[in-house]
Every structure is written in C-alpha cells, then in structure tokens.
Write a structure and sequence with these properties.
Family: Belongs to the N(4)/N(6)-methyltransferase family.
Catalytic activity: a 2'-deoxyadenosine in DNA + S-adenosyl-L-methionine = an N(6)-methyl-2'-deoxyadenosine in DNA + S-adenosyl-L-homocysteine + H(+)
Protein name: site-specific DNA-methyltransferase (adenine-specific)
Strand content: 5-15%
CATH architecture of the largest domain: 3-Layer(aba) Sandwich
Shape: globular
Structural class: alpha/beta
Low-confidence stretches: none
Enzyme class: transferase
CATH topology of the largest domain: Rossmann fold
EC number: 2.1.1.72
Oligomer: single chain
Mean pLDDT: 86
Number of domains: 3
Number of helices: 17
Strand order of the largest sheet: 4-3-5-6-8-7-11-14
C-alpha cells in the first residue's frame, strides 16, 4: 500500500501525463493511442532499469572493496582506464544476472531523446553495434522508435513478438511523436521511497484504465476494474503456486497478485504465472505489463483461442482467476462435443459461461481454488442445460462461495455480475496462505454485496478498501470457522439441502434475506407493518374523499 506522500506524487504524475499526452495526439482514437503511449512507457522503463544497473556496476568497478573493482594502477593513463570501464559496462552478462533487460545503444532512452528532432526529416545516425560504430538511415521519429524496439527484441528473446513495432505506420505529425518522447522523458524514475518499477508500473496500469474508459465497451476486452481484481485476489490469497488466467486481457490479475504478495511480505518468485489471450495486441500489452514489473511469465507460444488451441494443456494450477467475455455466443466452433473438459455437461453454443467455468475447473489442481466473474444469469438460468450443469457442480461439492456484485462497476457493460468461487477440496487443510481451513463439505457461503461501494463519478461505481475487507474477512472467517455469523441481508452459510429447496439456484439474495434493521434503525418487520397500515388508511381516506367529491359534483348538476 502506498502512503499519502507516495499517492500524492503518483496522482500528480497521472494528471500531468494524461493531460499532456492528450494534447499531443488529439488525432488518434483510443485504440491506436493506447499502443503508442504504452509502447513508449515500456521503452522508457527498460532503459531506466538498464541505466540503474549500469550506475550500480560503475560504482562496483570503482570501489576497491568490491569484487568487480578495476584498479586504475593497471593502466598507463586515465584514458585507457576510462575506456576499460566503458567496455566493462557494456558486458551483457552483468545485466542478465540481475534479470535486467539488455538494452542496446540504439534503444536507450537518451539516444531517442537526443535524436528525435534530428530525424523529423531524415538522417544517418551513428549507432554502436557489437563494438562497432555504423551509420543507419532513419526516415522518421516512428522509424527511430521501431528500430529501437526491434533491437530490444533481437537482444532479448523473451520479448520476441511482444513489442508493437508500428510507429512508422502511424498517420500523425512526426514532430508530435517527438514531443511525446520529450514528455515521457519527464517521468521521474527516482523517488525517496518508490522504485522505478513502482512508478512506471503504476503509470502503465493507470493508462490501461484510462484507455478502457475511452474505448467504452471495447475497452472491457482488455481491462477488468481494479476493485474487482483486488477482491478476487484478496479472497483467494495466491501466496504460492501456479496462477492461471485463461482470458487474461492485459494481465490485471497477475499484477494484483504480485502487489498482494509484496504487501504481505511474500516473494513473487514463489508464484508461477500462466496466461492465455486470443487478441494479439492485448497479448502484447499483457507481456509488456509483466516485463515492466520483472515478473516471469508463460503466455504460451502465441495468442490463441482458449477452446480450440489451449496453450497450457497439461497445466494444473493452484489458483485460477478470470474475467471472460459475458454470455459469449458461438464459442464452440471447432470444439469437440466430447471434449474432456465438459465433465459436468456440454455447455450450450449460445452461451460460454459454463464453458469458461469447466475449462477453469479442468486446469485446477486437486487443492486449487478459482474465482470467476460471470453474468448474473449463470446463477439461475436453466436454458439449454445450464441448470443441469449448475446442479452437477453443486452436487459434486465444487461451489464454495457466491458473491453478488453491485451494478455499474464496468466500463463496458451494464449486465449485472457475480463472482463464483470454486474449489476441489473443502476438507480441513492448511491453505497456501497458512490459514487453517475447517471442513466445509456440502456448504456454500452466499454474500450479497450489491449495496456496497460508492459512485466514483456519474456512471461508474467502485469499492473502497473497507468494502473489500468486509467481503474478504467474512469469507475467510467462514472458511476458518472462526468468528463467523450469518448477517441478514449480507451473508449466509447454506447447506446442500437448502440449495436443493431453491432448485439449485445460487442467487445470494435468496439465502441472505433482507436486513432486520433499515437505515433509520427501525426493524424491517415493524416498518413493513407500519407502512402497510399507513397505506390501508390512505386508501380508506381516498375512498372517503371520492364519495365527498361525487356528492359535491352531484349538487352542481353532474351525474355519474
């Protein structure tokens, strides 16, 4: 968690960057602008990280107490000594040993900053490559950036195919692109308590959210609101093991997992990241998102359809989290009706909700847990066999918790949503977080969170940290059998018999009931009795007045 000083610093940085960048590129729509800005933020980060490591090495080379010390007494003059230091600083292995991306001279931010004005026409620039200086022909600022990105990919195989090298193709004023480089140059990568990774990671995430808002419905394809991601991560607590998202978008669940682990003094190295994404540009965004944070990842060989080209067929993950497209139609083209994933029934062609759910279960380890965001219809629909699949999931004791969410949480849809939490093992055991879980077999926790949150603007709702804690704390208390009590209107623990009585419908409102006490402090039952009596009196008074009015009108000669 950031303190007040850090948050103020980040907020000011956000406002400055977003306002300035919008002034520079007014001609681009959000879907184009997103890749322009985020690609440059990535380039700035890897270059800054390289410079930080370079400064560390220089200090080591000149420190007599360090193993890397280069003794000036071994050289005839200072020029030779400085040349040797400069040569050592270009040693690739020094950077790779700390998982720092090697950045060739042509891709270093200072090179872009020094030359973006020079190449607005065209220029031949001297570039160092493998110890030799050669001239390259650069035709535009876009060409300069693409050349830098290509050089980074060549020198870092992990990034092959990840970077979006399309700046040359942009139909924009090259001078504006140069000004954008100057703007991003003002992002400070040093702060008294925030690291460069913290700062640029925050900037990257902020821009993802802003672009999702700007793109509206389309933006929801790559971005899940942070509050929802935080809630699922906080409830599942992915401290150790394999984390998988089969519809990862820009990788929000992985970022939040890292932040959660760091906040609780864990090690991100204890977690292995696996993801899949169909959209190529979104796949690239996710990979850059991980690279900026130094998170190792496996997103498969390529962007691919989760149903027809599973990139992780043998994976059994400890934690599975996803926000797939709601109510996705025609998802099963090319999918075998007897696919081994459909253990609990073949999902209908017209809706992929239970296809996502069963795909995630298929990839879940024996002690694993999953959190899946779905449309509310998944909790009650009986269309095309969905009710039978839901019944099978309940009878096989896979459903652990259902959370009903408030409306207006999403930028891309107004469809009411819920979160399914499933696990393959409800027996008493020790969770990855160290929590001692009790036997929860044949029990399901229902949480109705529809009244939580606040309106952050005219159209979007958000959760406060207190809201997230309220939901997460009651879930963990229930799992541990410690200080848990049903709360009318909010949470209820139901058994299989209770759910059978409700025809296997999982809507939390059916189980938690209404609050006993209204906001004014009056008991709900008392308030209903009072209001019913008041309404009866008002009807009676209405009838009396109607008779009086008719009598008066009759005296004036009107007949009824």
């Amino acid at each position: 968690m950031t303190d007040q000083n850090e948050q103020e610093f980040l907020n000011n940085l956000e406002k400055k960057l977003w306002t300035s960048a919008n002034k520079l590129l007014p001609s681009l729509d959000a879907s184009q602008y997103k890749h322009v800005m985020l690609g440059l933020v990535f380039l700035k980060y890897v270059s800054d990280a390289f410079d930080i490591r370079r400064d560390e090495l220089k200090a080591q080379f000149t420190n007599p107490d360090n193993d890397y010390f280069v003794d000036p007494a071994d050289f005839d003059d200072d020029a030779d000594y400085q040349a040797d230091i400069a040569s050592e600083l270009e040693g690739r292995d020094y950077y790779l040993e700390t998982n720092t991306f090697w950045v060739p001279p042509v891709a270093r931010w200072q090179f872009l900053r020094d030359n973006n004005k020079v190449v607005i026409g065209s220029a031949e620039l001297p570039v160092q490559s493998k110890g030799e200086i050669k001239n390259i022909k650069i035709n535009s600022v876009g060409h300069l950036i693409d050349y830098a990105l290509d050089a980074i990919e060549i020198d870092n195989p992990k990034l092959k195919g990840v970077l979006n090298k399309r700046y040359t193709q942009l139909q924009i004023d090259q001078a504006k692109l140069g000004e954008l480089i100057d703007l991003i140059s003002t992002i400070p990568f040093k702060h008294e308590s925030l690291s460069s990774k913290d700062i640029l990671g925050h900037v990257y995430e902020y821009f993802l959210g802003q672009f999702a808002l700007a793109e509206g419905k389309k933006g929801g394809q790559f971005y899940t609101p942070k509050a929802i991601v935080s809630l699922i991560v906080q409830m599942l607590e992915p401290y150790k093991g394999r984390v998988y998202d089969p519809a990862m978008g820009s990788g929000g669940f992985f970022v939040q997992s890292e932040q959660f682990i760091t906040a609780h003094k864990g090690k991100i190295g204890d977690v292995s990241i696996y993801g899949q994404e169909y959209n190529h540009t979104t796949w690239q965004l996710a990979a850059m998102n991980m690279a900026i944070r130094g998170i190792d990842f496996n997103f498969g060989k390529e962007p691919a359809n989760t149903y027809t080209n599973d990139q992780h067929p043998d994976l059994r993950a400890d934690f599975v989290m996803a926000n797939p497209p709601f109510n996705m139609k025609e998802w099963d083209t090319g999918v075998d009706d007897n696919d081994p994933r459909w253990v609990y029934g073949k999902p209908p062609s017209g809706n992929a909700n239970f296809a996502w759910l069963q795909h995630m279960l298929y990839h879940l380890a024996p002690n694993g847990s999953l959190g899946l965001l779905l449309a509310n219809g998944s909790m009650s629909s009986n269309t095309s066999g969905e009710g039978d699949i839901r019944k099978a999931l309940i009878e096989n004791d896979l459903v652990e918790c259902m959370v009903a969410l408030p409306g207006q949480l999403f930028t891309n849809t107004q469809i009411p949503a819920c979160i399914w939490f499933l696990t393959k093992n409800k027996n008493a055991r020790t969770a990855a977080s160290g929590r001692q879980l009790i036997d929860r077999r044949n029990k399901v926790l229902f949480i109705d969170a529809r009244n939580l949150g606040y309106m952050k603007d005219r159209v979007l709702r958000d959760f406060t940290q207190d809201d997230l804690n309220k939901i997460g704390d009651v879930y963990h208390a229930w799992q541990m059998g410690k200080d848990y009590e049903d709360q009318k209107g909010f949470c209820s623990s139901a058994n299989l018999a209770d759910i059978q009585k409700h025809d296997f419908v999982l809507t939390p409102g059916r189980y938690v009931g209404a609050e006993d006490v209204a906001e004014d402090g009056e008991a709900f039952a008392d308030k209903m009795a009072r209001l019913t009596a008041q309404l009866k009196n008002q009807f009676e008074e209405s009838d009396r007045l109607e008779v009086e009015i008719k009598k008066n009108l009759a005296g004036l000669g009107y007949e009824f």
